[in-house]
């Protein structure tokens, strides 16, 4: 498995790769992961992730300083490193999680050796623009070049996947690749604790990277617009380059005493944050699936989310939450107020609907499907978004 971002990085792509690798190990597969080193130390050793031991091939990497933690494997050495690892491991299949550096090298070298290649896309070029230092007048050209590079890497794969139908359409439109499989990232729903007890306070939770494309400032402004009698608290779980700006915004809006930025937390602390929240606020406009939204649903939370990218596949307006126009703080505030003033039986019905919808995203179904792709077998009916489809769809 090749990844440009992997634990200890905290983001959707890294979390999916980690859970997929651990799930495969638990099923008896020998899994090797090739990813950039998390620091100066690089080499091959055993690491434990999600309670499973796997072989890690940590590549020598450099820090990308416009970003607070991102490290990247050296592009001019990636083919050499890929050849070395593939010749050592001699895998039955290569599955790359990003085409940018590691996936490019692995796909080229695996093809030369006749190894089956599967590619998964979690990438939107727009998400990285703020960290590239590329001037705005060059950004459209840079995005096009990024998609051209994606087309080359994914074009080497026997099968290409992405988490949702919307993301599959997006990838096909921008690369020209056809028949992209939409396969849910999956979730271990049993790890989360649904709580149907009435809350003692009105609390909005946001979980994720504290970066620009998440549009957390819209959520902060929405909380400031809510009526004072609701006394709404906002808990932002995660960290990133926008943290100080959000703290300053909360101070300017006079709600600093009701906004908490926790930074990174442990898995247990994360589950507790979901359990004590009343609702998840997800203002992001760049979600190819949103593992966070799935975790919140498994915790029996209603969700108020931006009507953008793949979020409408998880949040069904009026059923397990509400959608709002991206960037519209007043509309987001109105939707949140509806949740907070909702009679308890209606709120319970929304919570139960979140649990019903997330049942289709069981990680075991995801693992079954990838095993079929790895073997070159016909995949079973796919469960993605809110519907069951056949591969022909």
TrEMBL record:
Keyword Transferase attributed: yes
Domain called Glycosyl transferase family: residue spans: 197-349
Keywords from the named record: Glycosyltransferase, Transferase
GO biological process, one term: carbohydrate derivative biosynthetic process
Single GO molecular function: glycosyltransferase activity
Keyword Membrane set for record: no
Gene3D superfamilies from the UniProt entry: Glycogen Phosphorylase B
Domain Glycosyltransferase subfamily 4-like N-terminal: 10-189
Protein name in the entry: D-inositol 3-phosphate glycosyltransferase
Alphabetical list of PANTHER family matching this protein: SULFOQUINOVOSYL TRANSFERASE SQD2
